[in-house]
């Protein structure tokens, strides 16, 4: 239940969808291990990772954290670690705002958000 509480705390729909995609892809790779046993040599695994990368880049934009994730996914047996979820955590951890006010640099005041 804590995972769903965390996902509801994320305000951005793109971030929420990226988290769901990453968790789903990692779950598929862990649960369906016999289909992905060959690691990077498995066409299904490579296709799933390419689709996950494309969706996450579309949702979150390009980030360097996706390169090591793609490289790690090519290593057989490394699919047992939730690499996509870790990458999304790394990308979005600084973008999830706490209740603290944002400190802006000096200059004219930004327009109010509605």
What pattern of helices and strands is seen along the backbone?
HHHHH
Mean pLDDT across all amino acids: 79
Biggest sheet character: none
Number of helices: 5
Strand content: under 5%
Shape by Cα distribution:
elongated
Give the % helix.
Answer: 55-70%
Give me the count of strands.
0
Structural class, from helix and strand content?
mainly alpha
Task: Tell me the number of structural domains.
Answer: 1
Topology, element by element:
Layout: H1 2-9, H2 13-31, H3 43-60, H4 66-73, H5 83-92
Which terms would index this structure?
114 residues, mainly alpha, 5 helices, elongated
Care to describe what's here?
By secondary structure, the protein is an all-alpha fold. The protein has one domain. Helix content is 55%, strand content 0%. The chain has five helices and no strands. It has helices at 2-9, 13-31, 43-60, 66-73, 83-92. The chain is elongated. The two termini are 31 Å apart. The model has no long low-confidence stretch (mean pLDDT 79).
Précis, in short:
The chain is mainly α and 114 residues long.
């Amino acid at each position: 239940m804590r995972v769903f509480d965390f996902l509801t705390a994320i305000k951005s729909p793109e971030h929420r969808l990226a988290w769901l995609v990453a968790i789903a892809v990692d779950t598929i790779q862990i649960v369906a291990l016999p289909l992905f046993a060959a690691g990077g040599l498995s066409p299904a695994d490579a296709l799933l990772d390419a689709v996950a990368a494309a969706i996450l880049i579309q949702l979150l934009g390009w980030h360097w954290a996706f390169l090591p994730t793609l490289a790690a996914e090519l290593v057989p047996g490394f699919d047992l670690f939730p690499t996509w979820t870790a990458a999304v955590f790394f990308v979005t951890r600084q973008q999830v705002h706490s209740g603290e006010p944002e400190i802006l640099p000096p200059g004219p005041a930004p327009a109010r958000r509605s």
